Model the fold of this input.
Amino acid sequence: MLKLRRLRAPCHTRSGLLAVCFAALALTTGSTLAAASQNNAKPAVKAAAKSAPKPPPFDFAVLGNTPFGNAEVPVVRSVLTNIGDTQAAFVVHAGNIKDVAESCRDELITQRLSLLASSPKPLIYVPGANDWADCQRASEGSYNPVERLDFLRDHAFNDDALLGPGPVGYAQFDITRQSDMARFRQYHENVRWFYRGVVFVGLNLPGNNNNYRSAGGRNGEYEDRVIATRVWLQHATAYAQQKDAIGIVIVAQADPEFEPARSGGLGGIFSERSGRRGIDGYKDFRAQLLRLANRFKGPILLIDSGKTMRHTQPLRDAHGAPVKSFTQLSSYGSPTANRWVRVRVDPRTPQLFRFESVTLPPNSAAAANAQRGSGTAPAAVVTPNPEPGRTSASLPGVTPYAAPYSALYPPSGLATGASSVSSVSSDPNQGVTPIGPARAPNTATHPAAHSR
Done:
């Protein structure tokens, strides 16, 4: 019996070892197969993403710096009618709906907003310096600029307001406003929408050095809006990545005045340009655009209000080389109010954004009036992709104010410290709900809130 037990023990041990070995082998084989399956799945997912159907191409129209004066009102109305006869899905107006020589009074602003609201196609408008930030000038009525901005917020950006008809039957998109976020309730003018694979962002970036006050005192309005702009672009970047967007379009009135890097690196991006106007009000915005280009690898288009159509690639990376994914486009504007820019978005082509100059037909009465008023000769109806270049969108004779901001406006109460930015959620849809169909702007006038 003892011998039998001694003989059985090794056999029993060998059987146990074999069982353990088989189990380990099975686990190893299973893990290897699972890893191989995952590795094979990654190319399959990538291939499926590449083979997914691309969004269909579309057009949209660009206006800016018009109308300047009542003489251009019928011209702009004819331009809007002309756009309505095209395949453009919607219109973006990059700001400045009045001249610096026109008063910022309630009646004029509501008349110009009503003009934009007559657009046959949905129209998205962002405010310009002439519309609020420069209203302190005596030639514009000596208004409080922040009060004028609040007036615009009530009449052009209140709740679900969208100038022109609602999106049903035209452009199928919902407007999302930054004011839907609890920390940025006042920024009704900053908008975002998604259309056929492209994220569009509208910003309040006025052309008077971003409304930076050059004298002493706290620049409360400027500092608070810089934070709002920064957060809104951060959210737009995350939103574009979540939506697998093929491109981003940013609409703002100001030309942020890119310049080449002086000695390589980021000199041009972070330059204070103290020799020109003191503190550079667009430094933070240009740095934010570079961060956006580094995170989002698709094409980025910045649209600003200009006098004539120009497009170039002015953004430079840390080595001073042009960022080829970034393009800046300037709109037509007064005195060439009879022209508009058509942007063609075609995901099927290597160049996502293409630009065309469109002019009112020569037999148009409004076009004839515009040509007589500006002294320009008739041009071709469509001119694709003019020669790249840049002209400043700023108006001659316009200089920043020297009055201290603290003496003009009450503090807003929005925190400007770094903690206030870091505490904002990275979720681009935090507190955001889609905005429904449009309604025409309220034409009721507010009581005068300024002194003559």
